[in-house]
Amino acid sequence: MNLGLSEDQLAIEEAFTRLFVRESPPAVVRAAEPLGFDRSLWDRLVDMGAPGMGVAAETGGDGATLSDLVVVAEAVGHAIAPVPLIEHIVAARAHPVDDVVEGATIATISLRPA
Predict the structure, then answer these.
(1) Could you give the CA distance from residue 3 to residue 80 in angstroms, rounded to a whole number?
(2) Contact between 69 and 12 (Cβ < 8 Å)
(3) Which of 48, 64, 58 shows the shortest CA–CA distance to 103?
(4) pLDDT in tens, 44-90
(5) Which of 31, 48, 72, 99 has most Cβ atoms within 10 angstroms of its Cβ?
(6) What are the DSSP calls for the chain, one per residue?
(7) Is the pLDDT at 114 greater than 80, yes or no?
């Protein structure tokens, strides 16, 4: 049993790591406080198609597997990237409407009523 990353997952890891090294250095993370959000970084993720990557291809996404998304989550966490990508991916999988899948609208989930 091979528990290593597949070639596709290694490519995903490299792409996101490269992006975060370039676009989310510690100075950007610090500047994003107190809200913890950097619009420029979000726009780069939208350009990459990241907001919809976990949505099934039949509903407009890229159809990434949960294992692929774990690779992305690890890259986001390692960079302390000031974007709600993980929350958005979960919300997009639950409610795959066009503007959410495309990243034009940033979505999240709530475990309790607002």
Answers:
(1) 25
(2) no
(3) 48
(4) 999 999 999 999 999 999 999 999 999 999 999 999 999 999 999 99
(5) 72
(6) ---SPPHHHHHHHHHHHHHHHHH--HHHHHHTTTTT--HHHHHHHHHHTGGGTTS-GGGTS----HHHHHHHHHHHHHHT-SS-HHHHHHHHHHS--HHHHHTSS-----SS--
(7) no
